[in-house]
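[worker-b] picked up task from shared queue
[worker-b] task type: protein-ligand structure
[worker-b] ligand name resolved to zinc ion; SMILES cross-checked against name lookup, match
[worker-b] sequence length check passed
[worker-b] input payload:
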Amino acid sequence: MANIAAQRIKREFREVVTSEEVQRCAIKLELVNDSFTELRGEIGGPPDTPYEGANYVLEIKVPETYPFNPPKVRFVTKIWHPNISSVTGAICLDILKDQWAAAMTLRTVLLSLQALLAAAEPDDPQDAVVARQYKEKNDLFRLTARHWGAAYAGGPDRNSDFENKIRRLLDMGVEEHKARVALSSYDWDLERATEQLFS
Amino acid sequence: MATSSGSEPGPSREGEENKEKDERMFECNICLDTARDAVVSMCGHLFCWPCLHQWLDTRPNRQVCPVCKAVISKDKVIPLYGRGSGKQEDPRNKVPPRPPGHRTEPENTNGFPGFGFGDGGFQMSFGIGAFPFSFFTSSFNFGEPRPNPAPVGTPQFGEEQFLSRVFLYIACVFILWLLLA
Ligand SMILES: [Zn+2]
Ligand SMILES: [Zn+2]
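[worker-b] inference finished, payload out:
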């Protein structure tokens, strides 16, 4: 059966590489090893979202039972999104779980993830902290997501206000990513973030 | 006429592209290869039978079409028999046999009695039933005579004699057939 998996990935790989989405730089697929069991995906942030202009790298692991079971996909690039863990990059998306169908391909998975960036499902969250912010302070959520895109995914607009707060924590000896997570989680309230970091 | 090799690359390449497109139309939606032991679901999606079987086995609680997620089941798929199919059976194919096609015989509108095979069967049973009756009544005449026995010598009498001999002959043939079969 592993033979089907490898055979199919080969075909899919060819399909993605020649697809028009690649020419628009929207999705990308690369082989990590020769056995077609691990690939590296890349998706561009959709327009009119906080992720616009940023590029997100994905780790794709193809199980032996593919395509009867879904590939295991995870964000390598850190991202602020209700359905993606800001810690591990784990994704909460139905088609990667029980809604998977054998006719889906890596191309449709990448496009679905892109669609997920454009339309979050805060009621079915992977990251509860992000989901709460998304629902209660959506403007702040959008600024935070854009800031993370600039910090980790080559996106524009780092947001000087957020940068200054991070620098304050760096001066106190806090590691940059830790500082960003603490501030993001406490809605950029420097006092509460500091309290949490030093408690 | 000389074959113009390479003088017209345009049309031939187009033809090849079309051919590739045609072939892709018959790709299995699961393995993306040309469908072998092809079956089509009620929603019209094409698969290899081994591929679809494995998909349905992987998710016994969620029997849906891998393409459109319509509800499907193993006994509601239609096998596709192309010309020359069924010749090469893959011996590695250890999944249950592909479900058979459902076919209904067309309504019998045969206008010539005694022409088809079915009518032959009817004649046989008629022969058995009629033989003893006519044999006993016309040859031995024991028991009650028939209501209107035809007088000897009339054409009707001869006809009846002939008929009973025909029945006797049919019966003999039938018994012979029973013994041989
Ligand atoms: Zn197949
Ligand atoms: Zn279907």
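[worker-b] attaching auto-annotations
[worker-b] The beta strands of chain B are 38-40, 46-48, 78-79.
[worker-b] releasing lock
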